[in-house]
From TrEMBL:
Family annotation (Gene3D superfamilies): C2 domain
Protein source organism: Rotaria sordida
Domain (C2): residue spans on this chain: 6-109
Protein's UniProt name: C2 domain-containing protein
Transmembrane intervals: none
UniProt key word Calcium: yes
Gene Ontology molecular function, alphabetical: calcium ion binding
Length: 109
């Protein structure tokens, strides 16, 4: 007995997917550019905060920005994060913190 399959049948039957069920071709290389934040709340008793951010993709990989001292409107001047091979449905989250040298854990803004 012989079974004849067209090329499209083969693609459908033997489609390669990752652990999330996505086709590997549904992955992208991206450049994420971070510019600024405005009017952040005052976090320090004396002076303004020292903000920085942590960006995370799918809670798996992260990027931490530089600290911008003594400001409530930080500018990161298009600080870039180049990320390769991320799935099309990836979730980006960005959290801003205030750097405190006197504390073990920085304040969440």
């Amino acid at each position: 007995m012989f079974l004849f399959l067209s090329e499209s049948d083969l693609e459908q039957k033997f489609r390669v997917t990752d652990s999330n069920g996505l086709d590997p071709s549904d992955r992208y290389d991206v450049v994420i550019s971070f510019k600024s934040a405005e009017d952040l709340p005052k976090m320090d008793i004396l002076g303004r905060g020292d903000p920085y951010f942590v960006a995370t993709i799918n809670d798996q990989i992260s990027f931490t920005s530089m600290i911008v001292p003594n400001t409530s409107s930080p500018k990161w001047n298009n600080e870039e994060w180049i990320v390769r091979n991320i799935p099309m449905n990836a979730k980006l989250s960005v959290t801003i913190y205030d750097k405190d040298d006197e504390k073990v854990i920085d304040d969440y803004v």
